[in-house]
Amino acid sequence: MLIEMYPLRKVVGNYYAAKATGAIIMVILIPAVFYSYTTFTEENLSVDIATFMIAVIIGQSVSFMLFRQGKQSKSKETIAIIAIASLAILFVMFTFYPPHLPIFQDTTTGRYGI
C-alpha cells in the first residue's frame, strides 16, 4: 500500500545509488563478455541476446540488494546522480562523436557514429 502511494525513490533511501550501480555493472558486463567469447569463437546472435539478458538480471539483482541495505548518505546519492547523468551524456556523445576505436566502428561501412 505504501509503495502505491509514493514513488519508489521516495520510499527507498538509496534509489539512485542502487540504480547507478546496476547500470554501470550492465554497461561493463555486456562488452566484457562479448569480447571475451568472440576472442575464442565466432560472433553468435543468440549468445549476444543471452549476454544482454544475463547482464540485466545481474545488474538489477545488485540494484535490488542495494535497495534492501537501507538509507545511504546524501553524498553517495549525489555521486550516483552524477554517474547516471554522465552515462547519459556519454551515450549521446559516443553516438554522434565516437572515438576512433574498433568498438565504435560499423563493421559493414567502416564508419564511426551516425
Describe this structure in words.
The chain is mainly α and 114 residues long. It has one domain (2-88). The protein is built from 5 helices and no strands. The chain has helices at 2-5, 8-11, 15-40, 45-68, 74-96. Helix 3 (15-40) packs antiparallel against helix 4 and helix 3 crosses helix 5 (74-96). It is globular and about 50 Å long. The termini are far apart.
Percentage of β-strand residues: under 5%
Could you list the spans in which at least 5 consecutive residues all have pLDDT below 50? none
**Rg to the nearest angstrom?**
18 Å
| Annotation field: number of helices | 5
The total tally of domains equals 1
- What is the residue-averaged pLDDT? 87
Quick recap:
The chain is mainly alpha-helical. Helices cover 71% and strands 0% of the residues. The protein is globular, with a radius of gyration of 18 Å.
